[in-house]
Write a structure and sequence with these properties.
The protein has 172 residues and is an alpha+beta fold. It has a single domain, classed as 3-Layer(aba) Sandwich (Aminopeptidase). The protein is built from 4 helices and 8 strands.
Amino acid sequence: MSDPVRAAVIPTARLELRPLRIEHAAEMAGVLSDPGLHTFTGGAPLDATALRTRYERLVAGSPDPAVTWCNWVVHAAAERRLVGTVQATLSGPAAGRTAEVAWVVGTPWQGRGYATEASRALVAWLTARSVAQVIAHIHPRHEASAAVARAAGLVATGDRQDGEVRWRTGMP
């Protein structure tokens, strides 16, 4: 991908999106430990060792030179701790780049608007870097995630991928 985008610190009123580091795995294993977080996405929580291995792969970057992985942990200032993650997978030429995004906030911190605040900041940050379109795939029954997407400026489309509704910016 020409003109690569790199994850950088993204501050908000209550949060700081910090580029993912391998060392985040120990704390994030606790944040992401609730099996309920996988209700709509499948899978199961990873322990700290498995999450560290996953973070090693993510930090190393995409093996496809046409794809850039940007991953952040979400730090909540009031709690003085990590509370979730956001990510963007970028592809396409610089002039028409697309970002597929996702977010997750640990169960104890849900309902505080953190996912909305983090996703809004992420979409704004991507837009400022000339990302032409932001896409999210959301399970049709995941109402909380749909509300986050809507608040971040994404609109549901009639398209589905693997049973999930495609949401995107830049709708005509």
